[in-house]
Automatic annotation (TrEMBL):
It catalyses: Preferential cleavage: (Ac)2-L-Lys-D-Ala-|-D-Ala. Also transpeptidation of peptidyl-alanyl moieties that are N-acyl substituents of D-alanine; [GlcNAc-(1->4)-Mur2Ac(oyl-L-Ala-gamma-D-Glu-L-Lys-D-Ala-D-Ala)](n)-di-trans,octa-cis-undecaprenyl diphosphate + beta-D-GlcNAc-(1->4)-Mur2Ac(oyl-L-Ala-gamma-D-Glu-L-Lys-D-Ala-D-Ala)-di-trans,octa-cis-undecaprenyl diphosphate = [GlcNAc-(1->4)-Mur2Ac(oyl-L-Ala-gamma-D-Glu-L-Lys-D-Ala-D-Ala)](n+1)-di-trans,octa-cis-undecaprenyl diphosphate + di-trans,octa-cis-undecaprenyl diphosphate + H(+). SUPFAM superfamilies: beta-lactamase/transpeptidase-like, Lysozyme-like. One of its GO terms (cellular component) is outer membrane-bounded periplasmic space. This is PBP1A family penicillin-binding protein. NCBIfam families: PBP_1a_fam. It comes from Neobacillus notoginsengisoli. The lineage of its organism: Bacteria, Bacillati, Bacillota, Bacilli, Bacillales.
Length: 696
């Protein structure tokens, strides 16, 4: 230590001489001031002036034309007015949530200090210390994450809220958007839900119950945890007595009261196009970090890819029970369908099931995972085969063949020896498909499937992939998105519902970032479409045909796990027109020896897809691909579209020629008449000349 002392003295003298302590303090002070300025700037960006109006509105869903399509509301009964609430309701809330609410300017120094040391000892942000104003700022304007930055933003926004609104206005906004459990948002709804009475009629005991719920709505829900709710109510009553908000007599009476529950209206989630709206909420929560509570209470404006006409078409079809197979043993045959725009990847319509709808329940169009059967053939086999140089006329082996222990069979158990590729697609032949995947290589097939947006697990990288053999399965949305690449000349856009989300103060919270991938060449996409047109025109998808509308598509089904039963587990149809791609799934939620499909996809999903396209057709502008069906009109020089164009051109030329004749005819007639007169005059002169010659 003695040896180090001289060095230490030198450092100390240098430190003092250079005034490093003052410099460091100055730097810290500047950093602190800049931080304050930064958060103050963030607060100025928030349009808190429009917050009250925004919170009183429902979240609105807009369609792809930016027209209001649906409202999402938790039925907050329009919001309870602060002047209609008994004083003991306000006192119960402020006593337990923010006892100095009417004294501070948005934040409470004592509460912040207490929370700071609690968080410090905990080693993380555990919450606490927030005033009612801060909670309103957090719930209405900020994300739910717990970080020091978010806490700082909360403080500055709370201060700004206090400058703009009166205390009772802040309390009213807070009480009308906060969650009270059992699906009740807002104190008015909670009063109906728990006591079946208007908020102006609740007792002191009931007010304490409602106030006690705010700390942990689910934990203190009196329907599920009566004793906990009772203890929490008593804590609130004690706090109210301590702060002289109620008298001793009022306290003693209230503490003896039981919690008399009377289930009232509660909260009913209201919205049009329920399956689509649910899918929008799911995506907003999953992709953009919002919570269900935020969406239902903040008055967001969510712009989507919804096409109301196509959505209505889907819902009309799914209301026709006669289109679907009859259920067995008390279970209905379930189904899900989705329509996607090939040009954007936007989901234009979706129905996630049949029968009673449950708010944000299981959506079979977006959340189902089932083996896709033969709908996988174009994705895993024929698309990569075209890339490898195969053509629609390429001959494929169609005879009983084994690939090690794997021996695929055609559904009809008949074989042709060799078939052209388009015929194998058209008739959904299994053996030629597996043979072709074996020729091009499983790895190329799996790579192709993943380009179409469908993950392929390690266990699925085998020849069974050709026929849709997948351990985890796919959803109709994934399948429709994959087929949309064929309709869009080989380019696939990521499927999505949400375009952008705008908050209650007008700020854009999130927006969709377009992503696309080139799956195949334009020429190969057209070739694939020509083969899939053949499926609907001449093959297994005939039942999906709509006269006057080009539909390309593919059927698919999966086998039952019971060798002694003839039937199918899942049925699929994936198809597209020039403007829309879609997929339909049909099956039981739980398949067993009693619950299975006795028909094929040609009899089940194909007619459903046809019905959807018939309803959608009036709203589609294009009805033809202008592509010849594979195997037909092989000697024709022109495609169908080109023949139509040439006919129209010829018609126009004939029309122009007719008009020209009409316009020029009088001139031609005049010239002709003059020519005839001249000829007659000339003939007369010649006759006279001849007479003269004879006379001489």
């Amino acid at each position: 230590m003695e040896r180090l002392r001289p060095y230490w003295e030198k450092i100390r003298r240098f430190w003092k001489r250079r005034h490093l302590t003052q410099i460091l303090l100055l730097i810290a002070l500047v950093a602190f001031l800049l931080t304050i300025l930064f958060f103050a700037w963030l607060a100025t960006r928030a349009n808190v002036e429009s917050l009250k109006e925004g919170l009183s509105q429902s979240t609105v869903i807009y369609d792809r034309y930016e027209q209001k399509a649906a409202e999402v509301t938790a039925n907050r009964i329009g919001g309870a007015k602060i002047d209609q609430m008994p004083q003991h309701v306000k006192d119960a809330i402020t006593s337990i949530e923010d006892e100095r609410f009417y004294e501070h300017n948005g934040f409470d120094i004592k509460g912040i200090a207490r929370a700071f040391f609690s968080n410090l000892f905990a080693g993380r942000i555990t919450g606490g210390g927030s005033t009612i104003t801060q909670q309103l700022a957090k719930n209405a304007l900020l994300s739910p994450e717990q970080t020091y930055r978010r806490k700082a933003e909360e403080l500055f926004l709370a201060a700004k809220l206090e400058k703009v609104y009166k205390k009772d206005e802040i309390l009213e906004m807070y009480l009308n958007q906060v969650y009270f459990g059992s699906g009740a948002w807002g104190i008015g709804t909670a009063s109906e839900r728990y006591f079946n009475k208007d908020i102006k009629n609740v007792t002191i005991s009931e007010a304490a119950v409602l106030a006690g719920l705010l700390q942990a709505p689910n934990a203190y829900d009196p329907y599920n945890h009566y004793d906990r709710a009772l203890k929490r109510r008593n804590i609130v009553l004690s706090k109210m007595k301590e702060l002289n908000k109620i008298s001793k007599a009022e306290y003693e009476k209230a503490i003896k009261d039981k919690i008399n529950l009377g289930d009232g209206r509660g909260s009913r989630i209201k919205r049009k196009f329920p399956y689509y709206v649910d899918a929008v909420l799911d995506e907003a929560i999953r992709e953009y970090g919002l919570t269900q509570d935020e969406i239902l209470t903040r008055g967001y404006r969510i712009y989507t890819e919804l096409d109301p006409n196509l959505q209505t078409a889907l819902e009309k079809v799914y209301s026709r029970d006669w289109l679907f197979p009859r259920g067995r043993g008390g279970q209905i045959v379930q189904s899900g369908a989705v329509l996607v725009s090939p040009e954007t990847g936007g989901v234009m319509g979706v129905v996630g099931g049949r029968g009673e709808h449950v708010f944000r329940g299981f959506n079979r169009a977006t959340q189902l995972k089932a083996q896709p059967g033969s709908t996988m053939k174009p994705l895993a086999v024929y698309a990569p085969a075209l890339k490898e140089g195969y053509s629609i006329e390429s001959e494929l082996v169609d005879e009983p063949i084994s690939f090690g222990t794997y021996k695929p069979q055609n559904a009809t158990r008949t074989y042709s020896g060799k078939v052209p590729m388009y015929k194998a697609v058209e008739q959904s032949l299994n053996v030629p498909t597996v043979w072709l995947l074996n020729e091009i290589g499983v790895s190329k097939g799996a790579e192709s499937v993943e380009k179409f947006g469908i993950p392929v697990q390690k266990d699925d990288r085998n020849l069974a992939l050709a026929l849709g053999g997948m351990h985890h399965g796919i959803s109709p949305l994934q399948l429709a998105s994959a087929y949309s690449a064929f309709a869009n000349n080989g380019k696939r856009y990521d499927s999505h519902f949400v375009v952008k989300i705008v908050g209650p103060t007008g700020n854009e919270i999130a927006s969709h970032k377009k992503k696309s991938v080139r799956v195949m060449s334009r020429a190969d996409a057209k070739t694939m479409t020509s083969m899939l047109l053949g499926v609907v025109e001449n093959g297994t998808g005939k039942a999906a045909k709509v006269n006057g509308l080009d539909i390309a598509g593919k059927t698919g089904s999966t086998q039952l796990p019971y060798a002694d039963i003839n039937g199918t587990k899942d049925q699929w149809f994936a198809g597209y027109t020039p403007e829309v791609a879609g997929a339909v799934w049909l099956g039981y939620d739980r398949t067993d020896r009693e619950h299975y499909l006795s028909t094929t996809a040609a009899q089940g999903t194909a007619p459903i897809f046809r019905a959807i396209m018939q309803e959608a057709r009036p709203f589609l502008k294009e009805d033809t691909f202008g592509i010849t069906v594979a195997g037909e009109e092989k000697d024709s020089v022109f495609s169908k579209k080109e023949l139509i164009e040439q006919t129209e051109k010829l018609r126009e030329e004939v029309g122009k020629a007719t008009e020209t004749i009409k316009e020029e005819a009088p001139k031609w007639k005049k010239a002709l008449d003059e020519g005839i007169i001249r000829m007659i005059d000339g003939a007369g002169k010649m006759a006279e000349k001849l007479k003269e010659l004879r006379g001489s």
